[in-house]
Sequence to fold (371 residues):
Amino acid sequence: MTKTAFKWDEKNNQLNFAVNKKMFKTIAQHLLFWVIYMAYESVAAIAGGVYNGVIATAYPFLINAADFYIFWGCYVWLEKKIRNKPLRITTIVISTIALVILSAYSKIWLSMLAQYQSFSSLGTHERLIAMGSRATYFGTMGVAYGFFKRIITKEREAAQLRLEKVKMLQQQEKLEKQALQAELNVIKSQINPHFVFNTLGFLYSETYKKLPEVGDAIITLSNIMRHALTKNEDGFSTLESELGYIKDFIKIHASRSPSFFMKINIETVTAQYKVVSLILITLIENMFKHGIFNQSTKEATLNITVNDGILHFYSLNFKGGNTMNKVESNGIGLSYIRERLTEEYGENFELAINETHNSYECKLTMPLKTV
Fold:
């Protein structure tokens, strides 16, 4: 509802008159419409030789404009007051007939006053029908205007609600990401990187000469932790570091098993590319989570290549009850991968998962960014 506010300005000792600008704009638009419409009909009357002057043209238009607004207002009022549909329709029809008759006779009476003529000369049957037709015409215009205005208003409100919903979802997603980042920051803050890496370096130097394999495992673990604790503000890591992380990750798990069967092809990439952090390693974790790697007849496959700035990831592993190489998931999962890739690339990526009761196959194709 449009509101008009009166406020006393004590500083200037005067009354400030604040009016909704939207109301002024609407009134101005309606006045402009009626002025243009009246001018149009006046020109048409002059061309037809039936123009009777400004006054004789203006007062019927006042009634026509009243018909325009009264018909719609009457319809809205009856719609609110009468809930019974048959009764409402009947009342609307009767009210419409009454308004048409009232409008026609009002124009005749005003003509009588303006032209000083009798009702018998001006209120002919044909003239009353013509005036009633004009009332019906403008009343129908008013109802149509009201309907279209109501539809447009509802569409705008629906669009606003959709926009607010999208903003709310975006805000919720932002908060979830902030919560995840805060959780990661808390975990990182609980670890003193310098202490950890210095300790691992000491263990490596003490064990490598006597137990080279253990020394290699220690330095590999150090590389994995260094990558995990590296903070990427933009959510990306270099492809080189991500692939190195994957190699070290596989190496650690291979060293834990007496027999390890996995066909690995990770292309050496010399170009400087960036990849979305945690995407590839999460897919690798899914392989190890329930995969079998100690049976030669069920050899796993991992293939990562880059072609013209497009990364191609393919993995296949068989599932079973073996827990020797089972790893705990980082909690991100495939749903996060799809959301993150969609956020970054829209539909310009392909992620296909084919899982059966005894196998797990994954294909990922996505563009890479340059550093």
